[in-house]
Each structure stands twice: as structure tokens, then as C-alpha cells.
């Protein structure tokens, strides 16, 4: 059985690659849900505590690159939100398709051709 991504939305072809990457849950690509949620919590902690200095990875007074760490934290939060909203739909579709595949295999086993 090949591991192809399961399409949830038939209009995905119209979305650009960047938008599709932002709107698909990471669990669709094999990431455990708990890891995505943990990274989102770390992103929230990092954003809520920007001036403490203990967690500051890149000083903000450096031009342009100083805000990259905050941008990564926002992306982690976004990944957690997408996982919470869209990941549930993906897991439901995946579970239904797995049940259908299992039923098909069971029916073949019960009715041998020879």
C-alpha cells in the first residue's frame, strides 16, 4: 500500500504551493500530533516572553535577521492551529479509508477464488 497524501479538499489544485503548505496539517506528512502541539506551545511561550533574554535566540537589534526567530515562533503557532482545526478532519478521513481497505481485505479472505 503506497503512502499517498489523502486529499481532503477537492479545490486544493487551485491553491498555490505556499498556501497549501500553510493550510495542511503536518500530521498528513507523518509528524506526530503531539509534537506539533508541543512546538506550538513552545512558540507561544517564546512570543509571550520576547524581552526576557533567556530565550532570545537572535538579538532583535540586528537588522532584518533579528526578527527571524519570532517569525519561526509564529509559524510554529500557525502549524499548531492548523493541526487542531484541519488535523482532526484528516485523521477522520484517514481512519475511514483504512476501515474501507480493511473491509476489502477481509472480504477477499472470506471468498477465496480457488
Structure description:
This protein has 114 residues and is mainly α. The protein has one domain (15-100). 58% of the residues lie in helices and 0% in strands. The longest helix has 43 residues, at 68-110. The relative contact order is 0.15.
Please give the share of residues in helix: 55-70%
Query: How far is the first residue's CA from the last residue's CA?
Result: 24 Å
Number of helical elements? 3
Could you tell me the strand content as a percent range? under 5%
Oligomer: single chain
| Cα shape | elongated
Work out the number of β strands.
0
Please give the largest β-sheet. Answer: none
How does the SSE layout of this entry go?
Layout: H1 17-23, H2 33-48, H3 68-110
Primary descriptors:
114 residues; mainly alpha
Short description:
By secondary structure, the chain is mainly alpha-helical.
Amino acid at each position: 500500500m503506497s503512502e499517498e497524501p489523502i486529499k481532503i479538499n477537492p479545490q486544493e489544485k487551485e491553491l498555490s504551493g505556499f498556501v497549501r503548505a500553510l493550510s495542511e496539517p503536518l500530521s498528513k506528512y507523518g509528524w506526530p500530533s503531539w509534537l506539533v502541539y508541543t512546538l506550538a506551545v513552545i512558540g507561544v511561550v517564546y512570543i509571550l516572553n520576547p524581552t526576557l533574554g533567556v530565550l532570545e535566540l537572535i538579538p532583535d537589534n540586528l537588522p532584518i535577521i533579528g526578527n527571524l526567530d519570532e517569525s519561526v515562533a509564529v509559524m510554529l503557532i500557525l502549524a499548531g492551529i492548523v493541526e487542531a482545526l484541519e488535523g482532526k478532519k484528516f485523521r477522520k478521513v484517514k481512519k475511514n479509508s483504512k476501515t474501507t481497505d480493511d473491509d476489502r481485505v477481509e472480504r477477499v479472505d472470506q471468498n477465496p477464488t480457488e
